[in-house]
Protein 1
Amino acid sequence: MHVYLQRCGMGNKGMSAGESVTLTLQQVADLAHAVLRRHGLAEAHVGPVAATIIAGERDECASHGVYRLLNCVHTLNSGKVVPDAVPVVHHVSPALLRVDAAGGFAQLAFATGLPLLVEKARTMGIAAMGINRCVHFAALWPEVEALTDQGLVAFACTPSHAWVAPAGGTSPLFGTNPIAFGWPRPGGDPFVFDFATSAVARGEIELHRRAGKPIPEGWTIDAQGNPTTDAEAGLAGALLTFGGHKGSALSAMVELIAGPLIGDMTSAESLAHDDGAKASPYGGELIIAIDPAGFLGAAAAEHMQRAEALFDGITSQGARLPSQRRFAARRRTPAQGCRIPRALYEELAALS
Ligand SMILES: NC(=O)C1=CN([C@@H]2O[C@H](COP(=O)(O)OP(=O)(O)OC[C@H]3O[C@@H](n4cnc5c(N)ncnc54)[C@H](OP(=O)(O)O)[C@@H]3O)[C@@H](O)[C@H]2O)C=CC1
Ligand SMILES: O=C([O-])C1=[NH+]CCC1
């Protein structure tokens, strides 16, 4: 594989200073497919798992791009994911479905349930899909974008491992518990936000540790409960929630609605199930899809157009929309390629 070498600063989000290589999107795809196949992931899973990793790199989301291949390989090697799991869809009621991921990665389970979720949302106006027994290592925006692509409003959340202390406490209890929301926009990119309910995704702290860089204050506390800017000490202690008690309550909500509400694990239970393997989190995910025509019928287009004033109100004062950075990267990387830290590239190349 021919790759371009260069020195990089802090350009891409999560990208460390130091030597980097530039890969075309095709090279990123080839690398992802090769690594996953080499480590025994069944062919049916390779495409969907690789797609989320390639999309992460394309959108310059370094914490959930090719870096995630290391976690995938580790999870495969530790036997904490079923590499050839066959997801099974269960129709629960007119507005509800479950997908049993059977211990496999979440991506194939999501793709398997998606058509029925869309059909139910269109029929009922709102529908929810619970994915059970899945290994989730990825960003959630590819999933909400799969629904906004169909003209649906989307919400998704999942617990992870107990790495985050509740506001006012010092012991890890919550996962990094991301929440993603998507709103389809006429003739443009959807409005999408997707964030961990911790101050930052754990992957971002791992990238700082790899790069030997300090982390900002307010992300973590060490094992003694003291604030720390040392990535290693923070990972050994606990992450903090974003927005204090507000992020803490949202994180608890994710634990509840994508855990016990759908008969699946909390982040504490996921970590206990992991049993020290340090594999990716295991448990459930909740996805909700809303058809604007459900409430509005033929008036849906008019009201969706009216909603555009909100986005204009944000951007016209110089503020940016969430995902605007990602969408800009998405338009750039097909021509410019993806910059990856050289050390990470070499580690992945060895795994392929
Ligand atoms: N599967 C799992 O268990 C977990 C997955 N994750 C994933 O990690 C990823 C990163 O999470 P996190 O570190 O919290 O995300 P970030 O803090 O990087 O970004 C959160 C959101 O805020 C937007 N944003 C950032 N800066 C601004 C700004 N100045 N103005 C407006 N919007 C802004 C981002 O858009 P943009 O992208 O355009 O910058 C993004 O939509 C997520 O995709 C999440 O799904 C996290 C935890 C657990
Ligand atoms: O960055 C993060 O916090 C995680 N990403 C996938 C599982 C947890």
Protein 2
Amino acid sequence: MACQTFLRLVQGAHTRDGRSQGQRNAQDLGGVPAMIASAPDEIRVSEIFGPTIQGEGALIGQPTVFVRTGGCDYRCSWCDSLHAVDSRFRADWRGMSTAEVLAKVRALSGDTPLMVSLSGGNPAIQPLGPLIQQGQAEGYRFALETQGSVSRSWFADLDVLVLSPKPPSSAMATDWKSLRTCVDAAASGPRIVLKFVVFDEADFAYARHAAAQFSDLPVYLQPGNHTPPGPQDIDACIDTEGILRRMAWLVDRVIADQWYAAHVLPQLHVLIWGNKRGV
Ligand SMILES: C[S@@+](CC[C@H](N)C(=O)[O-])C[C@H]1O[C@@H](n2cnc3c(N)ncnc32)[C@H](O)[C@@H]1O
Ligand SMILES: Nc1nc2[nH]cc(C(=O)O)c2c(=O)[nH]1
Ligand code: SF4
Ligand SMILES: [Mg+2]
């Protein structure tokens, strides 16, 4: 698909159906059970790749294998991983057992344990508890990235839980109660961090407000990117200039606000490779 066409598709998600944010989220959340793979222990996988470096947030720079699950209860207007969200890509997703996923992780890492990032889609809607336990028994560590809409008791077993609630520019509404439940579910175990995508002033204000409600959690801010996901010719339309402009603005904004506890980082992998898959 041509780059511009894809970009229009992604941006169009803002006003696609005229429903309110709350209505859209409620309907999407209602679909969660249907998105869990039919066999109860099967993990719906979009892609497994690496090792590469973690490009975002608290673990930036760490060699990591990514397990990207398929299916999400959100539809962020600017999602950079639509191939793991939109049902148009469903044919590329595959139901895999815990053993199959672990075997792939082992093969990619040359049997040397490292950090595994569980991302998606929303990995919280997949049965990942056994993978985390069995992988950890072999020395692998697990981080999970989620928007905080669905919590699981097995969050407590993670090494790192990255909660990335979605700001106004995403056109999604935050369920603050669910977000709190995620934090509570993980309270006894992993390191928990907040990561916010920021495109504009309203997103910045949202991040400020959300962080204030979880004042003991470290905060990572990253400039949003409008680079569409997918095709191989992605480098041709990477929005590097826009990303760096927003990055500079975000640094200024944090300093002006004396928000000295915040960390500001770009998506390093996007700067290096664009939104290319598998890196
Ligand atoms: C693709 S999401 C998958 C995990 C989960 N659904 C979530 O949103 O946290 C992984 C990370 O990428 C971030 N992300 C997605 N699209 C982005 C974009 N266009 N610019 C910057 N970050 C983006 C999300 O906010 C999240 O922190
Ligand atoms: N290198 C690299 N770092 C990442 N950090 C978060 C990613 C994601 O899409 O979840 C991601 C990704 O896809 N690649
Ligand atoms: S919650 Fe994450 S995976 Fe789902 S649409 Fe938003 S950014 Fe994409
Ligand atoms: Mg990504």
